[in-house]
């Protein structure tokens, strides 16, 4: 049995969060550069140039890409042949929380979390807690995907329990409509993560994970790949454009993931991520 | 770049000369305020108390910066979604607010108040936070320090590129 120390998990969490906060993926950057070549109007070009310049400054100065450094979401897969041994902070979950706090203090992140959502809404002051989604898998490694999430775009996300009869068109219409209603609030150009199928909560989870797929990658199932292309074309025909200034680039990608679902249902979840699409993955 | 230079605080003539789509370069003082600060200001107005700064002619920037590192004036400080402040904005415009900087669409009520009282709404690029921080030359907390990032700060801007989204 392989031993994984809680402190290693803490350090991995801290490192991945800061990497995500300071450095944009090369895939997103390439897509933005391609968009700049396409756009002709001055406001759209200005927005894209500022976004690219901001990314350069952030990684050079190791400063967050956006002031909304987000709520920390961690997807963790723990191999069943590994055992987590506690350290000073505690075990598995405590280590992730401590890693998120260490990133908060060390990276000068913003305290963006309130404790009670409805009544006091008092700021927790250290951006805690992180949201943890953990699974037990084969092997003896621990794999972690962190996705700090800002709420300009999170707030524009939606889920609908569509009937099976809604079919392909119903799903596509809901996706496009969600992006249309979001307008310029989620800081376009966005990445649209879509979950189709599963149960209510599973659908939302796969939508969220789909946002982290590499921009430019093609869905392995040609039917879904075609649906992604169609939705992206429709979304970009909305004319919202970079920063909402008008243009051809409202989204850089539509990523769909799907899961088996109930005979009576076809849930569709749409999770929107801004151009500051922050995620980082690593393992122990 | 072809940008119109704007010196804050705004005067009626400056506002009158602006058109939606104009690209501007903004300099001068703004006050940051977002969700919690707006709620408090609205409560003050209801109680007939003075606002924490003299709002007549001033500009609010919808932003909650990240903390500054040692030696920095301010941390990354891009705009937040203006629409969340829509419920409070018409009364602030009525109280004298003349400019707003943020991102995203505004409600009909806000657009009407802007027309009626001669106010203007500028958009800056959401998520361009590290770039925008470079335009901040001074930063001091003026009210609601307990709100952390949501406190009202007075920023001295220089060369902030924005676009007129409405007036
Ligand atoms: S939506 Fe994204 S880029 Fe825009 S303010 Fe929020 S975190 Fe920043």
What does it look like?
The complex is a heterodimer of chains A (284) and B (167). The longest helix of chain A is centred in the first third of the chain and has 20 residues, at 42-61. Chain A has two domains: 2-19 and 65-149, no CATH class; 152-277, no CATH class. The two termini of chain A are 14 Å apart. The model of chain A has no long low-confidence stretch (mean pLDDT 97). Helix content of chain A is 39%, strand content 23%. In chain A, the strands form three sheets. Chain A has a four-stranded mixed β-sheet. Chain A has a four-stranded mixed β-sheet with strand order 6-9-7-8. A two-stranded parallel sheet of chain A has the order 1-3. Chain A is of the alpha/beta class and 284 residues long. Chain A has helices at residues 6-22, 26-38, 42-61, 92-106, 151-154, 167-182, 200-210, 222-236, and strands spanning 2-5, 71-79, 82-85, 131-137, 142-149, 158-162, 190-197, 251-259, 266-273, 280-283. With 167 residues, chain B is α/β, with parallel strands linked by helices. Helices cover 24% and strands 29% of the residues of chain B. Chain B is built from five helices and seven strands; from the N terminus they run E-H-E-H-E-H-E-H-E-H-E-E. Chain B has helices at residues 12-17, 35-47, 89-94, 108-117, 129-133, and strands at residues 4-7, 23-32, 59-61, 99-102, 120-123, 136-143, 152-166. Chain B has a five-stranded mixed β-barrel. The longest helix of chain B has 13 residues, at 35-47. Chain B is globular, with a radius of gyration of 15 Å. Classes of the chains: A alpha/beta (284), B alpha/beta (167). The complex binds iron/sulfur cluster.
CATH architecture name of chain B: Alpha-Beta Barrel
Number of strands of chain A: 10
Q: H/E element string of chain B?
A: EHEHEHEHEHEE
User: Given the C-alpha coordinates, what overall shape of chain A results?
Assistant: globular
* Helix/sheet category of chain A: alpha/beta
Bound compounds, each kind once, are:
iron/sulfur cluster
Kindly state the mean pLDDT of chain B as a whole number?
95
**What multimeric state do the chains show?**
heterodimer
Tally the beta strands of chain B: 7
State the end-to-end distance of chain A: 14 Å
- Name the CATH homologous superfamily of chain B: Fe-S hydro-lyase, tartrate dehydratase beta-type, catalytic domain
How many structural domains does the protein architecture of chain A include? 2
Low-confidence stretches of chain A: none
Low confidence ranges of chain B: none
CATH-assigned fold name of chain B: fumarase
Number of domains of chain B: 1
């Amino acid at each position: 049995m392989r031993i994984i120390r809680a402190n290693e998990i803490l350090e991995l969490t801290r490192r991945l969060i800061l990497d995500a906060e300071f450095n944009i993926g090369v895939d997103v950057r390439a897509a933005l550069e391609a968009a700049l070549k396409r756009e002709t109007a001055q406001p759209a070009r200005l927005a894209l140039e500022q976004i690219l310049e901001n990314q350069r400054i952030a990684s050079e100065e190791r400063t967050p890409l956006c002031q909304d450094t987000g709520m920390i979401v961690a997807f963790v897969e723990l191999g069943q042949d590994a055992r987590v041994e506690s350290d000073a902070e505690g075990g598995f979950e405590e280590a992730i929380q401590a890693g998120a706090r260490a990133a908060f203090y060390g990276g000068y992140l913003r305290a963006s979390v309130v404790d009670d959502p409805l009544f006091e809404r008092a700021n927790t002051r250290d951006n805690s807690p992180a949201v943890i989604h953990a699974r037990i898998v084969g092997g003896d490694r621990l794999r972690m995907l962190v996705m700090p999430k800002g709420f300009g775009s999170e707030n524009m996300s939606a889920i609908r329990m569509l009937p099976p009869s809604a079919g392909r068109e119903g799903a596509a219409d809901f996706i496009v409509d969600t992006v249309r209603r979001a307008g310029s609030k989620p800081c376009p150009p966005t990445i649209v993560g879509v979950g189709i199928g599963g149960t209510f909560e599973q659908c939302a989870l796969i939508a969220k994970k789909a946002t982290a797929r590499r921009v430019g990658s093609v869905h392995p199932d040609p039917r879904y790949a075609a649906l992604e292309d169609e939705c992206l074309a429709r979304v970009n025909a909305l004319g919202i454009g970079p920063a909402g200034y008008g243009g051809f680039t409202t989204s850089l990608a539509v990523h769909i993931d799907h899961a088996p679902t109930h005979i009576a249902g076809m849930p569709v979840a749409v999770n929107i991520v801004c151009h500051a699409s922050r995620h980082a993955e690593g393992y122990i | 770049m072809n940008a119109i230079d704007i010196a804050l605080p705004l005067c009626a003539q400056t506002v009158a000369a602006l058109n939606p789509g104009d690209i501007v370069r903004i300099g001068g003082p703004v006050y940051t305020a977002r969700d919690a600060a707006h709620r408090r200001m609205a409560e003050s107005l209801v109680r007939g108390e003075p606002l924490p700064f003299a709002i007549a002619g001033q500009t609010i920037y919808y932003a909650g910066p990240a903390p500054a590192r040692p030696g920095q004036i301010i941390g990354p400080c891009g705009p937040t979604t203006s629409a969340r402040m829509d419920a409070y904005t018409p009364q602030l415009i009525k109280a004298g607010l003349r400019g707003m900087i943020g991102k995203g669409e505004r409600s009909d009520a806000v657009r009407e108040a802007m027309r009626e009282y001669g106010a203007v709404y500028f958009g800056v690029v959401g998520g361009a936070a590290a770039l925008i921080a470079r335009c901040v030359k001074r930063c001091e907390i003026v009210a609601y320090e307990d709100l952390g990032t949501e406190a009202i700060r007075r920023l001295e801007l220089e060369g902030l590129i924005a676009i007129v989204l409405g007036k």
